[in-house]
Each structure stands twice: as structure tokens, then as C-alpha cells.
TrEMBL record:
This is DUF6296 family protein. Pfam families: DUF6296. The lineage of its organism: Bacteria, Bacillati, Actinomycetota, Actinomycetes, Kitasatosporales.
Length: 72
């Protein structure tokens, strides 16, 4: 699987669109963010998702799936 610039993250029924940033996460993969910067996720080239806390008192979700999408 290749790295994409945009993904939709599915948190159960909720879907959030994220875009690639210029940062890398703890696993060395790109970090993606939503337009607010609140939702942060590291997504590997195999589509594995690690949601990252963007502020205090957050409990990052553990069951998230990512699917690549084309930009608007």
C-alpha cells in the first residue's frame, strides 16, 4: 500500500477527513490531521492507524480504520 495525502478515519459511525502534515509520528510514519488540528493520527504505508493525543485529557481511540480519499 502506498502513502496517500488524504484519508477518512472511521471511528465507528463517525468519519473524519484528515490530510498529511510534514511531521512524522513515533513509528516514523506520516502524521495526518483534520482541519482543526484536534484529530491527529499516524498512518503507516500498510494502512495501520495510531491515533495521537493532541492535547491534555484526551483518550485516543484504539479502533480506527483509514481509507484513502481524493482531496476536495
Amino acid at each position: 500500500m502506498r502513502v496517500h495525502d488524504h484519508y477518512e478515519l472511521a471511528f465507528g459511525q463517525d468519519v473524519v477527513r484528515v490530510h498529511r502534515t510534514d511531521r512524522s509520528g513515533p513509528g516514523g510514519h506520516p502524521i495526518y490531521a483534520d482541519d482543526t488540528g484536534i484529530v491527529l493520527a499516524e498512518i503507516s504505508d500498510r494502512g495501520e492507524v495510531r491515533v495521537l493525543a493532541s492535547g491534555g485529557y484526551q483518550n485516543p481511540a484504539s479502533r480506527v480504520t483509514a481509507r484513502p480519499v481524493q482531496p476536495h
